[in-house]
Design a protein that fits this description.
With 277 residues, this protein is mainly α. The chain has a single domain, classed as Vanadium-containing Chloroperoxidase, domain 1. The chain is 71% helix and 0% strand. It has 15 helices and no strands.
């Protein structure tokens, strides 16, 4: 599999110094909050209020678009578009599986540590736009959707990194820009404060790197590349497809239709490869 070899080679070139940038960014954010005396929950929320209201008002003008985009923060939706890589580039899935576990751990630990209230919990609900179900509770920091999005995008970013500098810059910019559009939909639908999604994105990047480096060193997910385990994926695809059919009957949004189509195509391809073995 040419694509899988390309991915393996790209991952092999990565150095642990890639962790420096996200750690520096987190430190900068921490220093900024400290300088503004905003390390308490209340002040953390208040210092972002005007930015939240502005971004929410602007993005909230496109509720259908924002609602569709924000669904990509659901791992079952985003990963539905990547199932096909089980056949063509299983190394990507080896990295994604470990990265997803890391992102889940970070999300649970940090949400329980900070206990920041969501916008709907602390602001007047009539002062901003809420799209879809109102997100409430004390679990706003970091944004779990943002962690998921950038975890997956980081794995893809380095999997398909090009050699030429000009193309590399364009590729990195395109992936990061796309990721930011997706994660800021969480502000657009009224579910998160701006720093929630920025910090979540950085945590997601770190999680993606952890997944890549772990897949390089450990072979715990090598079975993904073994065709005899394809029935497991076939079963998961069928279950996921049924869940999307239920969602489509309940909420008619194009993102669910596209995810279902992707699952059907992937199911056909995986069954075809499995039968040919």
């Amino acid at each position: 599999m040419i694509m899988n070899v390309k991915v393996i080679n790209n991952y092999a070139k990565l150095k642990t110094t890639l962790f420096f940038l996200p750690l520096i960014l987190l430190l900068v954010i921490l220093i900024f909050l400290f300088s503004q005396d905003s390390l308490t929950t209340f002040k953390y929320v208040q210092i972002q209020k005007d930015y939240f209201l502005y971004i929410n008002h602007y993005l909230g003008q496109y509720p259908n678009l924002e609602y569709n985009l924000t669904q990509l923060g659901d791992a079952s939706v985003f990963l539905s578009f990547l199932i096909i890589f089980i056949v063509y580039a299983p190394k990507i899935w080896e990295a994604i599986l470990t990265a997803s576990l890391a992102s889940l751990l970070f999300s649970c630990l940090l949400k329980n540590l900070f206990l920041v209230p969501r916008p709907a919990q602390i602001f007047d609900n009539h002062s901003f736009i809420i799209v879809g179900k109102t997100a409430i509770g004390f679990s706003s920091l970091p944004s779990g959707h943002s962690i998921t999005v950038f975890t997956i995008l980081t794995v893809l970013l380095f999997a398909f990194m090009t050699e030429k500098l000009n193309y590399k810059i364009l590729w990195v910019f395109s992936v990061v820009f796309t990721g930011l559009i997706i994660v800021f939909s969480r502000v657009g639908v009224g579910a998160h404060h701006p720093l929630d999604v920025i910090i979540g994105s950085i945590i997601g990047y770190i999680s993606g790197l952890i997944g890549i480096f772990a897949s390089r060193k450990y072979k715990i997910w090598n079975w993904v590349n073994n065709k005899k385990y394809y029935p497991i994926f076939i079963l998961l695809i069928v279950i996921c497809g049924i869940s999307f059919i239920i969602k489509i009957n309940r909420e008619s949004f194009i993102i669910f239709d596209l995810a279902l189509i992707s699952l059907i195509v992937s199911l056909y391809k995986i069954i075809h490869v499995y039968v040919k073995k």
